[in-house]
Amino acid sequence: MSTVRQISPFDRILYLRSLPQLQQLSSATVTRLAYEAEEVQFDNGEVLYSPETTDPHFYILVSGSVRVERTPESGFEAGPGDTIGFVSMLAGTPRATAAARGEVVALRLPLARVLEGLEEDFLVVQNSIRNLARIQQRLLLKVIGGSRRAPWTKSIPIPRDRDLDLLERLTLIRQGDLFAAVGLEAGVMMATSMQQERRAAGAALWEIDDASGTMCIIVDGEVEAELADGQTFTAGPGYPLGSVESLAGIPRWYRPVARTDIVTFRVDHETFFDVMEDDFGVTEVFLQAMAQGILASIDVLVQRGEPLQVLDPS
Fold first, then answer.
1. pTM for this structure?
2. Are 314 and 88 contacting, i.e. CB atoms less than 8 angstroms apart?
3. Does 300 lie in the same domain as 219?
């Protein structure tokens, strides 16, 4: 890898502004990225990153082609305008190797500086979460069928004659990775904003193509969800039904029906954003969890031998 200077700062701004994944960012944010990006060149066969990479940078390709692969059978080609490595670095560890095919020019961005920028501009955070959620939804359409989702490993008795109190809610939600390490204030804000709901077995929570915007965290009971193509998956305590589409800003894409009597916490996605805006530590943990979820879905596709696409699933 060598550092080059072929693109002026002004041309970088114009180039970054032209990319679809950056068009919702403010001019100030794009300008800052343009000045912080390092212009680098790779010769044929040079590795941009691999599972051994410890320096968290990602790349926006300017010219040339890069092969990104987990195995020879599960790779894809990335070209000018594509972002590669962002999800991997955000998740903590790359799982693929990215190597230049011919001469490649790219903009190299440090993840730490980008995260600092996110803390300064929460609209950028929302845009990033929306993009990650849309990637995850497209992957889940391929991998969620036949699976069971129930992240909580412990339970507490659910009173039948009252709603759960604040301490009980905090005890439950802190089982998840997202809220296990958050501050007390953020945890209380989240717990108090939840609306507890009960549904009898057989009740549908919503229909496919309904408007999204809220998620329902399963507290007790089991749900079976059917996709438009007839595939189904089951979900139990801890699974946030409806979270992906609410964060992505797209309609409902499966129909969940209670298999047993269920108790859920309904949370508006705007409330969730408020919690993240007040505590950037929650934001960082959540972004990492989203990236890890994307890579977990990619793992399933790789195991099946299915082809990958340029979703930045590297």
1. 0.84
2. yes
3. yes
